[in-house]
Amino acid sequence: MAELKVKLGSDSYDIHIGTNWISELANQFTQMKFSSNALIISDSNVAPLYSNKIAAVLNSVGFSTEHYSIDPGEQSKSATDAMDIYTKAIESKLDRKSPIVALGGGVVGDLAGFIAATYLRGVPFIQIPTTLLAQVDSSVGGKVAINHPLGKNLIGAFYQPELVFIDTLFLDTLPERELYTGLAEVLKYGVISDCDFFDYLRQNSNDILMKRPETIIKIIHRSCQIKADIVSTDERETGLRAILNFGHTIGHAIEAYTNFEKYNHGEAVAIGMHGAALISYHMGLCSAEVVEKICHCITKFHLPLKAAHCPADKILPLLVRDKKVINGKLNWVLIKDLGQVTIVNNVPDAIIAAALNEIT
Ligand code: ADP
Ligand code: ZN
Fold first, then answer.
1. Which of 21, 146, 196, 337 has the greatest number of beta carbons closer than 10 A?
2. How far apart are CA 121 and CA 97, in angstroms?
3. How many Å lie between the centroid of ligand 1 and the Cα of residue 57?
């Protein structure tokens, strides 16, 4: 097992990573000063697989457990679902110290975190992420949200969990495509801040794809550590945290153009990383070899390099709709070398257009 601390002053918390160790949750829960009724929020794919196992562990140390299961998918991050969960929480008499447990992927984590942040002005929140994407990304950083009919994640808060508990065993039941989408974010961490980690991913891609527990623990641990370091320095996203957006400017535009249907998040980010790498190269910031190495890894992880049927002239206007635009200027996270990025806000339109043409 591995452990790391996310340092955020009084909001600091631990991330625990292990394999086949759900029973360890008993220790964790007894150490915290929680009320003894917990609410486990999950979705209808994950609940039948793991909900009873988690409940049994919590029951064994004196917790009663209530369950709420949402339909899988982004459409459940809604105000209607949130209201139903508040009702469940009130009817179950959850108090200020009752833990809300998110058992699922990023959708469940965002929604359950939003409930935990707002119910009774905030109750303890425990993250048990079951997708690789949630384990390496959304469960760290404290962003919780629901969607508004006019846009994703528009209603939300920064709210830190008391504990993030990761069991790599959950990945055994995860569809392959969901594993690959998580690997896109893992690769991103290597590119933005650790060239040794990037090399490790390149050299161990087969073990990673075979989900060898030691390898998976290592990549989750390093990814969380990189994200935690960045988030601790910049909790509210004013500066450094922007580098986490690498590959996301184009990625978000591709997701939006294809109505969040054709590509999942990691696939869109993989295409976006390819685009950002090409822009970096055309700006004279990095070598062709760097671009080539990134493309090789993206392909190794069964992720796409190009978005077919997404015309560059349709993607271009969508870029400026990105949330990260400040004063109408696009801030590009570009590569200087593997493990080293820089933010550039004066990329000529012609270079952006050329890169878009290469990836669509
Ligand atoms: P993400 O974590 O990628 O943001 P979701 O929360 O939408 O996304 O989860 C992706 C899909 O994988 C959902 O259909 C969810 O029900 C399913 N899922 C999550 N974890 C597991 C798991 N461990 N085993 C099987 N399916 C899972
Ligand atoms: Zn992302």
1. 146
2. 11
3. 22
State the pLDDT at residue 7: 86
Looking up tokens 């109408």 gives: 328
CB distance 112 to ligand 1 below 6 Å: no
Task: Go through the domains of the chain in sequence order and give each one's CATH number.
Answer: 2-173 (3.40.50.1970), 176-359 (1.20.1090.10)
d(CA 358, CA 329): 23
Residue 323 has pLDDT above 80, yes or no: no
Alpha helices in 92-124 (DSSP H): 106-118
How many residues in the chain?
A: 360
**Alpha-carbon distance 319 to 18, whole Å?**
39
* 55-75 CB burial, b ≥16 within 10 A, e <16: bebbeeeebebbbbbbebeee
Question: Which residues lie across from 16 on neighbouring strands?
Answer: 3, 165
The pair of three-digit structure tokens given for residue 323, joined into one six-digit string: 């949330």
CA quadruple 146, 151, 152, 154: dihedral sign? negative
User: Does ligand 1 lie within 6 Å of residue 108's CB atom?
Assistant: yes
pLDDT digits (tens, 9 = 90+) for 55-79: 999 999 999 999 999 999 999 999 9
pLDDT at residue 328 in the model: 65
- Is the Cα dihedral 250, 208, 281, 334 positive or negative? positive
Atom 16 (ligand 1) nearest CA? 45
Q: Judge residue 348's burial from the number of C-beta atoms within 10 Å of its C-beta, 0-12 exposed, 13-18 middle, 19 or more buried.
A: exposed
Q: Which residues pair with 71 in a beta bridge?
A: none
Structure letter (DSSP) for residue 121: G
Long-range contacts of 30-33 (CB under 8 A, 24+ apart): 30/61, 32/99, 32/124, 32/162, 32/163, 33/97
* Phi and psi, residue 32, nearest 5°: -90, 150
Provide φ and ψ at 197, rounded to 5°.
-65, -40
CA angle, residues 20, 105, 14, in degrees to nearest 5: 60
What is the model's pTM?
Answer: 0.95
Q: For the chain, first and last CA: distance in Å?
A: 42
Would you tell me how many other CB atoms lie within 10 Å of the CB of residue 93?
10
